[in-house]
Sequence to fold (244 residues):
Amino acid sequence: MTVRLQDVTKKFGRHVVLDRVSFDVPQATACCILGRSGTGKSVTLKHIIGLLKPDAGHVFVYDEDVPTLNSRELTRVRKRIGFLFQNAALFDSISVGENVAFPMRRHTKLSDGEIRDRVRQKLESVGLGGEEDKMPADLSGGMRKRAGLARAMSLDPPLLLVDEPSAGLDPITSGEIDDLLLRLKQDQHTTLIVVTHNIPSARTIGDELLMLHDGRILARGTADELSASDNPFVRTFMTSTGGG
Fold:
């Protein structure tokens, strides 16, 4: 199992954000986490990558209990995880190519020539071939998201966490990002955990959908199963067409 959460609880002050949340994600599948704003979706991702520790419960990534790891062990696990942030989180002071190269320079012993070749390959794979010398400020929102995806996949991690991939994007560009994520799952067998408000996107990407509500998993299953749920809130949520 790639990722497994077991009875994870997290509070901020008196507010319970996650309340004994448990789920697992098999290798080479895509899990989409749905829910209204403030229901703990992004907090869940931050637990998986070790940016937050649960108040109770366990977070296993490749059978390692992430909250118990020291900094060196956590760095080793994080090398197997790519993270695409909602705003792409590119370094504005360096070029697109250097953004993609950054994890390679930090975590590998590749030569400059090898890194340049891999950067070109990664950018071409997301439709940004020839854009390596541009600065992030010169990119559109969709291009920034593509560049962020190229950087997230620069070390070919088997697990990719994605926070609101369609946020701020028009429907056509959002669909292109969905296609890129699907290709990663199909061609490289990448495991995807995607937080999204975008129901059409979740239907396209997700093998399984989880709906968080009031800190708990309200529904879990395929898109069709959630659409046919006995719970009226779940059915209504699944009929929405909103973007990020």
